[in-house]
Fold this sequence. Notes:
- It is a single chain.
- The strands form three sheets. The protein has a seven-stranded antiparallel sheet.
- 12% of the residues lie in helices and 36% in strands.
- It has two domains: 2-96, Translation factors (Elongation Factor Tu (Ef-tu), domain 3); 102-249, Rossmann fold.
- The mean pLDDT is 92.
- Strand 14 (228-231) and strand 15 (234-237) form a beta hairpin.
- The protein is mainly beta.
- It has helices at residues 76-82, 121-130, 192-205; strands at residues 2-15, 18-25, 41-45, 55-58, 61-63, 66-72, 89-96, 109-114, 136-142, 158-163, 170-171, 185-189, 208-212, 228-231, 234-237, 244-246.
- The longest helix has 14 residues, at 192-205.
- The radius of gyration is 17 Å and the shape is globular.
Amino acid sequence: MTTDLHVVQGNETVAPGIYRLSVGPSSPSAAVPAAVQPGQFHMLKTVAPEPLLPRPISIHEVTGDVLSFLYEVKGAGTRNLAALKPGDPLRVTGPLGRGFDVDALSGRILLVAGGIGIAPFRYLARALAEAGRTQVTLAAGFRSRPYGIEDFQPCVRDVRIATEDGSEGVKGRVTSLYSPRDFDVVVACGPVPMMRAVQQGCAEAGTRGILSMEARMACGVGLCLGCTIRTTTGMRRVCTDGPVFPGEEVFFDAHA
């Protein structure tokens, strides 16, 4: 893990309130570490004095020394990120957390994304493709206009879309797009109700589930304990013990 001052290369709007941010090293010493694991995240902080704390953002893609992040504007920190322009500086700390174990994913793999939960799956999908995993399906759900789907075209042949307003794909929830019994492993990232439904569906089908959890974080390195969740092995920190957890270990009643 390192903290470096990076330079914004691009910060485009991909949907209302959704941005894709690309940053590169400001110097050779700030180059992206060689081993960035899909599912890890970085803490991002503009040079503005407020808000004081950085924001945890999932790694969307890594291309050479360039990191890409797909994020949703939710508060002051992400509003500051959305205001960044090419050439602006950005403090980047990471990579952080435990990501996806690509070697442990095989057979028929389903990626279930709810809204901005699609963010970590682009890098994972590429890693799976490069590892020869060809049976990968993406099921993505959105309230309305989908975003980020085009990023998966080179890596995933089976892409399924659901929108709550019926504007594209199947009208309804993302969980209507699949049956867990059709897959060997289901990997999910999204809002708590969706994650709970994925967990329940996998349990009923006897299908292995993996959950990439979201949580509010202050430090990102396990010191503040602000991102703890309840699991079958006790209280765990999303920032260091996760954000990726075996699906059967997570209790949702503690943070729903």
